[in-house]
Amino acid sequence: MVISNSGIPAVVPAGRMAQVEQPVLGLPGDVELRPWRLSDADVLVAAGQEPAIRQWNRLLVETPEDARRRIARMHERWQAEVSAIWAIARPGREAVGLIGWGDIDLSGGSAEILYWILPAARGGGVVTEATKRVSEWALNDLGLHRLRLCHSVANPASCRVADKAGFSLEGTMRSALLHADGWHDEHLHALVQGDI
Q1: pLDDT digits (tens, 9 = 90+) for 28-73
Q2: Closest Cα partner for 81 from 9, 22, 33?
Q3: Structure confidence at residue 7 as a pLDDT band (50, 70, 90)
Q4: Which residues does 88 contact at the CB level (< 8 Å), separation at least 6?
Q5: What is the distance between the alpha carbons of residues 69 and 88, in angstroms, rounded to a whole number?
Q6: CA-CA distance, 160 to 30, in Å (whole number)?
Q7: Cα 13–114–163 angle (5° rounding)?
């Protein structure tokens, strides 16, 4: 057991992620969450050019080279135990979205979800199902205690994902995130150990 300087044990011991390969997680409807591959670079470039994805995400990927660097960084950040990012895809096909955990704090037991989906894959509930699945992984397999889902109050689609995935609305953070059109208030939703 790792004890922090405050004498409080780490919620999740260091090494829990780095010692294993990132798993492939199945979803209903023949969809899987898998690690990103260098061959997915064109999908990241397309996402970086899609207006709605650019509006709500800080995805600055303009070239295949940028995308390959971003994908390599995803794998490095898994090993560093600071993020866990999956591609949303049908088995054997290219990715149609991204979902995962950023700002992972193993010692404190928390993380924040991030996601986007390309227009052709929207509307079928895949982001909600993916959110449920990565939340189950984070709480039950990894052992985190608290998961956050934050989004602009001007983004009702993300509010619906949070509600359907079981995240409780905890409040509004005023002027919390700078988007291209200025500062946005954000809703803070959370899921904690025992909620699912």
Answers
A1: 888 999 999 999 999 999 999 999 999 998 877 889 999 999 999 9
A2: 22
A3: confident
A4: 31, 33, 95, 96, 97, 98, 99, 117, 121, 126, 127, 130
A5: 19
A6: 23
A7: 100
